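At this stage, I put together one protein's amino acid sequence and its backbone structure tokens, which the following lines show:
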Amino acid sequence: LPLSDGLQSMGLCVVPVGVEGGTRRVLDFTLLTKPHALIATPSFGEYLIEQAPKLIGKNARELGIRWFYCAGEPGAGIPSLRKKLQEGFGAKVFDHTGGGHAFHGISCETEPYPGMHFVSADHCILELVDPETKDPIEISHGAMGEMVFTFIGWEGGPFMRYALGDLIQIYTEACSCGWPEMRFKILGLSLWIAILLTLLISALLGIITERLVIRPAMRAPHFNIFIITLGVSIVMKSLSGFIWSHNDYPYPSVFPDETISFGNATFDLIGLGNI
């Protein structure tokens, strides 16, 4: 992996265990090699905290991890998740994006979370566009939009004005840690892109399951793809929740958190959000 190669070129020792070997294997190699840093998705970090006492009889704090780098998902920018990882591992927690390409950002230790430092300006041209119209947005303090980047000096097939669909907010003021350059926060994936990707992946899994599994097993010519896709989606959602757990966040109500009275009757406005 490019990230592993880059770390090794800096003189670091990398133990690329990977999660495909199972959680027990990851924990066993952590005990064996005693690494100082761990790069993983925040959800897998949570799962390690929960499973360590069951699988190896030790708390995650006893693994000796000093630094936890969140990758692949929002992590350090969510206060409750950041606190859980800090307390669970007894480590400092950072956000990181990039690793496999020339767009890189990493957060610092400053509290409250100041976003990620854009550390690859000499390798990447960053632009902002409107997620709906794709019109350019000026990069200024507080600006929000879909990030588009072009790689400079990239070997192979360079990314030219490439969009991942991520929405970010830009901060041009210096960070309180002393970093003088631009920072950014990832706000999430564009809703319509997320919906489209979910539908495409679910449909693909449904077609593969119908053609390669259900047809041969049931000896039937065809089955309803919609029903199978829906079933596969439910199974995958339940399976991912069983493996990594779910992070539930309250959906904001459109009504204020207060009550109103009409005569002897009192109504909780926020409860109207359930209608």
Observations:
- Residues 192-244 form one domain.
- The longest strand covers residues 162-171.
- Residues 247-257, 269-275 have pLDDT under 50 and may be disordered.
- The radius of gyration is 23 Å.
